Queue: 4 jobs
Job 1
Amino acid sequence: MTESNRTPLEETDQVADAVADDAAVGAFMTGGGPDADSPAFLAPTGEPRIRTGADQPWDPVDLATAQGRDPTPENIERARRELERDGAAAIERTVP
């Protein structure tokens, strides 16, 4: 068979069978409610809520790691001082 006589993959019977298959895969079936793999989503509200990196609690080790530094005692202490001094601004500079 030459290169010019090959059927494109998209046109093979195997692909058509796979596309037409509506059978559920048991490994992906859940009880129907939210769980760790299928969370419940909130309906949109009137105004969009802008979320920033400082909306969640940050430990000094988290800040040091987010800044690309190894979590050594010196870097963790520097991040702790930065969080105490600048608060949320320290996080916003790193994770906007």
Note: The mean pLDDT is 79.
Job 2
Amino acid sequence: MSAAAGARGARTGKPVGAITRGTTNPNRLRRQDRWIAHALVPALRHAEAAPVVVDLGYGAAPWTAVELFDRLRAVRADVRMVGIEIEPDRVAAAQRVARPPELTFRRGGFEVPLDGNRRPLLIRAANVLRQYDEDEVTAAWARLCARLAPDGLLVEGTCDEIGRKQAWVALGPEGPRTLTLSAHLASLERPSDLAERLPKALIHRNVPGEPVHAFLRDLDRAWAAAAPYADFGVRQRWLAMVRAVADSWPLTDTQARHRLGELTLRWEAVAPG
């Protein structure tokens, strides 16, 4: 999203952004959903009535919005989900699964249009910025973060077609906080295989001299050293890898999250140099 495109959208009232490929599959974003439901527990439970969450750029079919809505309802029964898409035909097609007022769909883009200009507790933008240039990411993040509630969260990242390899950045109103890697461990050859799914802000930075490259290098080395643990299962190998890098990198999550094939660390440790 270039600055010029954002300005034009603001002047004309048209959605800000570009149409994505729209690729989607049921349960593709289950790993993100699971992490979001865990991370948002405090904010959801302390929010005022009917907190609003947004699935931005949900794609050609509305499955990701429906699935995230159902998973968040387990935490907060009165949560309101708004699926936002820039392509009118996708919005029209999604109406068949809408459950107003709890689950609705509307046309929009990075301006995140909501009734009464409400500020959402969550904006999830999965596989949206992947098609943009790296130098457009900062402006897109800033625009989306400005729409968040004071204790809100922006989750922006990418995944493969069936959701076995995922990576995302979590941002608060102030900016980026953490990077999470998540993998289907049984199909993972080495941690650096996740590099192809890094968020746009990092995917071109996986080169020598950049922090994210060093992080993936250290994960691969620890993974190789943990090979004997594979006799006890791939999860034990992953946990041994995590323990090996914990003293060198600022991990923020717990073993319960690690057991799910996740790894989260503070953003500043891998931010582009």
Note: The mean pLDDT is 94.
Job 3
Amino acid sequence: MIDQIAIGLCGVTAVFLSQDKRESRRRYACLFGLASQPFWFWMTWKAGQYGIFALCFLYAFSWVRGFYGYWIKRGSV
């Protein structure tokens, strides 16, 4: 139950922020997206949904790209 709540809250927040017109808010989308990933991995593995489990790696990679672009690379400039 906690897994589903965390996925719902973090996932919806990530999508909502990713569509914000302000970059200052959009940059937080990847943080919420990354926060939901452990719950996605756990839920799909536990349910035996191995195709979705594999997709979780692609989603996590995408959120990491955003994290790198908004937080790591930007901070080093």
Note: The two ends are 42 Å apart (CA to CA).
Job 4
Amino acid sequence: MDRSLVRHAHPHCHMLLKVEGADTQFSVGDRIVALTDEQAVLINAWEPHSYAHYVGQPATIILALYIEPDWLGAFRANWQASSGPGFFRSNVGTVSPGIRQKARRLAEAMVGDPGDLAEHERLLGQLMVAVIERFTEWQAALPSLRMAAGFGIDHRVRKAISIMRTDPAGVDDMTRLARDIGLSRAHFFRLFETTMHVSPRVYLNVVRLEQAVNFIVDSDASLATISERLGFSVPAHFSRFFHDHAGSSPSTYRAVSSLRGCDFETLG
């Protein structure tokens, strides 16, 4: 990491392990938490966070893991609970020598042989088992049936989410979106944040970033075309949005993902 990231969130749990370089820190929720050789940063699903890079500080190489619940469920069924709030009991965890060694080994394999995906996944699996067993109450963790089935989610919030996911380019005014689902802007924002734990704007940015990654990795569409599909008025605005949220430019991301032949998150 050599530049800041804006405040954002993800629908899956997220963990950061320092591999090399300067110690640094992240804002998670309303806390500032340090990322060091001895301490990992742990972020629950939909927990807002950001990174503020200090100008002039040496870059930090970070192993940033965004973990899909279904992938974790292949190890232990109740690990699908990672998609719910509170999976990590704290936003920081003391890194054991074993975890540090596993993280370093995975990072070296990804850099040294980008195409060996089977070996990367094997090492990633070993690291994830060690991390989750150390930093979560995994034996007691249960998936949220309420969230999985949509219970308790107001039908107007569900409609807003459907609109954002179906046509993110068409959502250019939150006041109009609120009106389209039958709410005032203020009521819409309160209801959405109470339900989803992030603002409608942050959620829309998540949708745009997810779709941008899919377009960049899985299609040959030009960046200008992707920009237009996602509702950015000019490609430069899309490039800045992507860099501010993902840590690299769209063109760099496409080049690296093409080299690797997969869609691992790569932050530069």
Note: The first strand starts at residue 5 and ends at 8.
